[in-house]
Amino acid sequence: MTQAADLIERDDATGRTVILSGNLSLAHLGDLPQRIDAIDSAASIDLAGIDHIDTIGAWIVHRLAARTQAQVVGANEDANRLLDVVARNDQAIDTRPQPLHPISRVLDQIGAATKLSGTTLIGMLGFLGATVISLGHLIRHPGSIRINAIVQRLEVVGVSALGIIGLMSFLVGIVIAQQGSVQLQQFGMEVLTVNLVGRLTFRELGVLMTAIMVAGRSGSAFAAQLGTMQLNEEVDAMRTIGVQPMEALVMPRILAAVIMMPLLGFYASIVAIIGGGFLCAVSLDIPPVTFVQRLREVVPITDLYVGLVKAPVFGLIIGISGCFQGLQVRGNAEEVGLRTTAAVVQAIFLVIVIDAIFAVFFTWIGWT
User: What three-state secondary structure class fits 20?
Assistant: First the structure.
């Protein structure tokens, strides 16, 4: 039967000796740790009488030796090995992170953001390539086109958004007309408010504000839906049964965004024109007939073409950003929120960048 751990204190000419005996393992220590804590001083610690020692026992002996500056004697090979290991690992650990210099912190954040941006850009380019391949497959095999899924996405992206986009566009048209008229009144050129509303709405703000609204409304929905499916392993299950997620989940959403963006952009432009005409009729006494005649005179058809050319590109960007970020969800539900936010931010950022590129391009080809 294993003897429980025990200790004896003995005083002699060399000082006090603490003699430990029995089994110095966790299950047999009993009240030995409290008795050792009560020892104030010791010259040596005798381990010749112990039968067995584990890491906990070695830690107790080491702590007593370090506190009393006592010398450990009589230990066998196993005990010496454990005591050496405990002594080597008896180091204070600072759990507080070392503060970084402000410049180092800024550079670290810039580097991390740059790395993340590069990785995301490469991933989105690869996802664009996969989208093109899937589109080619659908063109070669029209029977694999999921009409019901596309029609459902058309309703969600387009029809359900008519109300909020119409209200937003109407108010934007009023704001443009009001701010423009206030500035032009200083020069007695209130009539040019019609020019401002017409050209700015058809050329830029109609499709741009629509793209931002669709990105926040539908792009986020794409990311959240696909992210939840990815989290629940539904996407992997589809691959297992032979269904391609790109064709079943991604392409209907991207096609819906590409198809609906020109229609929504044109609709938003018309509603914004109505809002501007309403403000002109109320504040500037410009009749609606005169407003429309002036629009026909000053707004070239190329402005409408510019908006209609940009719209499907913006829809493609929104669809790819939302679906790409949704399929990147890994680990836990928090990733869904993070990826949804990233999808909206990236879509809006890329839409504005592409819009600036289009502005330079159309000016270069003479569509001004």
Answer: strand
Mean pLDDT along residues 301-319:
94
The Cβ of residue 199 has, within 10 Å, a number of other Cβ atoms equal to: 17
Give the other-Cβ count within 10 Å of 244's Cβ.
14
Calculate the dihedral angle through the C-alpha atoms of 272, 274, 280, 281, rounding to the nearest 10 degrees: -160
Supply 63's token pair. 């702590």
CA-CA-CA-CA torsion for 217, 218, 223, 228, nearest 10 degrees? 90
What does the pLDDT read at residue 94?
A: 61
In whole angstroms, give the CA distance from residue 186 to residue 206: 27
Residues 6 or more apart whose Cβ sits within 8 Å of residue 36: 7, 18, 60, 63, 64
Report the distance separating Cα 329 and Cα 326, nearest Å.
6
Q: What is the pLDDT of residues 7-66, one digit of tens each?
A: 888 887 777 888 888 888 888 888 888 888 888 888 888 888 888 888 888 888 888 888
Q: How far apart are CA 315 and CA 253, in angstroms?
A: 10
C-alpha angle 215/219/220, rounded to 5°?
105
All structural domains of the chain with their residue ranges: 6-89, 141-364
Contact criterion met (CB below 8 Å) for 85 and 57? no
Nearest to 21 by CA among 67, 71, 74, 68: 74
In the chain, count H helices and then E strands.
Answer: 15, 4
| Class level of CATH domain 6-89 | alpha beta
**DSSP tag of 22:** E
175 within 8 A of 276, measured Cβ to Cβ: no
**3-state SS record for 49-85:** EEEEECHHHHHHHHHHHHHHCCEEECCCHHHHHHHHH
Q: pLDDT tens for residues 207-253?
A: 999 999 999 999 999 999 999 999 999 999 999 998 899 999 999 99
Q: Is 240 exposed, middle or buried (0-12, 13-18, 19+ CB in 10 A)?
A: exposed
CB atoms within 10 A of CB 217: 17
DSSP state letters, 108-172: HHHHHHHHHHHHHHHHHHHHHHHHHHHHHHHHH-GGG--HHHHHHHHHHHTGGGHHHHHHHHHHH
